[in-house]
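Appendix C reproduces, verbatim, an entry submitted by the partner laboratory led by Prof. M.T., so that reviewers can inspect both the input and the predicted structure.
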Amino acid sequence: MRDAATTSGAWRTTDHETVTFRDASVAWALAAHEVLAETASGYGYFVTVNDLAEQIQEMSGIRTDAPTRTWMDAILRKVARRCHNAGEPPLTSLCVKQNHKVSESYRYVLELAHLPVPADLEVHAAYARWQCYAAYGAEIPSDGGIPPLIPRGGGAPRRVTAAGPVSTPKPDPEARKAVCSFCFTELPANGVCYYC
């Protein structure tokens, strides 16, 4: 009979050999740091928890059938600890839930730094994202940029996927409307001005 340490539900994709959760989480944390550092190299980029979980399993060659919500917080805490100990900005601020908010595990970043939890965790995460972009060579706007809150609704966000960076498509500019050369009113489709 297998014990709990070997039945974590994690396995190597190459040989389907069972991997302990401890070994899997170390490999996933290393991969997560790499993915988040790559994400930080593009200003305004971020990654969702589910996308990050998929990418780190792919990169590490270790998979699990456990729900993402049961193990990703532990991975993000490991990454936060590594960033804090290395004096790096908190890369975990770039990882958001499906609703584009940081998860409750982001509070761990504040605990590590012995900071009080602010009323609006999203604002702190926005400043932390800005630090990440600056530290990892993202092209910051010439005015210094504004710490970016993740868009929640209106527009499609820029994010990094397994295929690479994806940017928000720009809408086609509207064609200029024809105007009368004498009274400068917009002309109807037939091009005849009825005011002059």
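Residues 1-6 have pLDDT under 50 and may be disordered. Additional entries are available on request from the coordinating office.
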